[in-house]
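fyi for ur records
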Amino acid sequence: MEENKITDTFALDMLIKLSAAEIKRSALEQHNRDAALNALRRFALVFLPEDEITLKPQGDGCELTAYEAAYIIVKSTTDSELKALWYIFYPYLVAASPHLDDELYEKTRDELTRTDVLEAVLASRYRSLVNDCREDLEAAGLAGMYVEWYEPYSKFREEILDSGDTREMEMFKKLLAGGDFPAVADGTEKLLDRDPYNCDIALLNIAARVSILGRDPVSRENELKEVVTLIDEFLAQNLDERKQAYLHYYRGLCLLGLTAGGSVELDDAKAEFDVCIEITPDFELAKFMLNAIEAKLENLN
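which gave:
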């Protein structure tokens, strides 16, 4: 499956550009504005090539640290995307700065761990860049600060809502309903790495993957076969009827797609939709597919 095209370099560049715009329209005096922009530029230079940074050195104003500049930005901005980006990338600032300003760190943390900011992170297209898995961070030898910094977001997205879903699962369901299939496929694949036996996650992943199949016949067939394999792994579990029905429905869709290459017979796909109806007689999507297949079989005969 195609990887998420949002990279940390792209997102960090966006952070710098949005932050610079925020500083330029702030009520700071000119010399403080120049100092904040210079601090932001120094931070950018640690991670981005100089020739790709559009922010130029400003006048000879007073000096500000990156911690001071960051706090000015997150305290004053009302841009939810910018706050989300600062939450994601603040550990980069700590890594780039030789001396941690404990007081500003705590004040900035208070600003960026509010519920509205965590909601913005979860809804952001940059959410996949949050490296908040404790095991991964510790295995990479990263400092405990990283684990501590991302912990509020980890707890927030795993919070159980009245629907019984976590906040993250609810978000992926909304994305699926809105047609953002690549985001759902990529995000749920990462969730399955952490929770490989969760059928609810798998169903979202399967639904997204069958919706973004490529046009190349070979890659399309390989993807369909991978999804069928995933479905079969979950069908081997003792699941409730609703989940079984949906798994057979998606298996039928995959087999239907594989009939184009001649590796599967139309009757095999039809059998999956028949099972759906046996399990849940009111499964309208399965009924629609059965009617379409039966019409096609009549035309062939």
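The longest helix spans residues 217-235. thats all i got for now
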